[in-house]
Amino acid sequence: MKLYQAIKYYTNTILAPSHKILSRLWPLLIAIRYEILIIYKVTVADWTTAIIPPLLMAIGAFYMYFFSSISTYDGGYFNAILHVISPRIFRVIIYFTNYLIFFNWFNQLNSVEEDRINKPFRPIPSGLITVKGAKYHLAAFSIIYPIIAYLIGGLSSLCLCFMWQAWTVFNEVLKLGKNAFHKNLFSAVGMWIQLASCYYIMVDTDPGISELLNNKPCLFKFAIFFFILTTAQVQDMGDQKGDKLSGRKTLPLLMKDNTCRWLTVLMLAISFLMLHSVANVFLLTIAEENLENNIIDGFVGKEFGIVEFILLALNVFTCIRLFMYRDPKHDSFTYQIGYGGIYCTMCLYYGMCINKYIKY
């Protein structure tokens, strides 16, 4: 909302239509301001699961490749930032903003009644846009998203874009999101597509169709897949009232709230241990390769230990909040900051581990 207020103040005061030319542009400025507000409101609740994670994945990979304690890069940092890091991070942001806008329009058009109770700030229930207007936006971004995907990453990004669109349509048209187990599966498969899309934009390679979902390291991605598959119900903890009225069968409603919270805490712990084990095997392989090649004495870098500590702290924080703060407002905070923070950190960790695949 602060972003919108700043834009509103700027256009209403500093850019007040006192000049003749500006007066002619005023309707366009108002339309742009309106579209920015629409995009903000339709996406803001999901930044921590759709835009920030791939961004952190890219940042983690580039940091380890160019700046970390194990980096073997000996070129100019300014040149790397100007010609490699900045353009690819920009592409990641643009791609995943459209990725999220497309999905959220489809999702929110199919959950208007639930949103009136659970998320009244969204564009449709808040009255910012009509259902008809939302359908026009969905149609527009159904075309814009594939075009941008192709321009950003070529055929690989376009194919992954079509996979995401097909998976979204399949889920929403058949209303499979009303089933608790399929809802988690949808999120987990979406994560796999998300990380694969970010991987190919970031490493700047265009693979064959058969390789699209098989980027390295697969075991690390499987650990994140398991995390999403078994714990995505954190998102539903604060939405139980609206979900019950709309007929959704989410895990908190099927298993009862307290049982679901215990199960989620158990799965969070197992997911952390699985990721820790997979990461250690992967890092041991890196250390052995470095030792064989006489690179920094087989050292793997203190940064990995720091990230694992952050992951552990966020897991503990989320588990505590799941039991101590159980009303919708606090459950939403737990999902956004705690659970979203875990996923963001996992993506950062994944990016750090794949830095050697970057083409420069």
UniProtKB/TrEMBL annotation:
Membrane topology summary: Multi-pass membrane protein
Gene Ontology CC annotation, any one: membrane
Keyword annotations of the record: Membrane, Transferase, Transmembrane, Transmembrane helix
Lineage: Eukaryota, Fungi, Fungi incertae sedis, Mucoromycota, Glomeromycotina
Keyword Transmembrane helix assigned: yes
Residues passing through the membrane, by range: 21-41, 47-68, 89-106, 143-164, 185-202, 259-284, 304-325, 337-358
InterPro entries, per database record: Prenyltransferase_related, UbiA_prenyltransferase, UbiA_sf
Subcellular location: Membrane
Top-level taxon: Eukaryota
Pfam families assigned: UbiA
GO molecular function: transferase activity, transferring alkyl or aryl (other than methyl) groups
The protein's name: UbiA prenyltransferase family protein
Native species: Gigaspora margarita
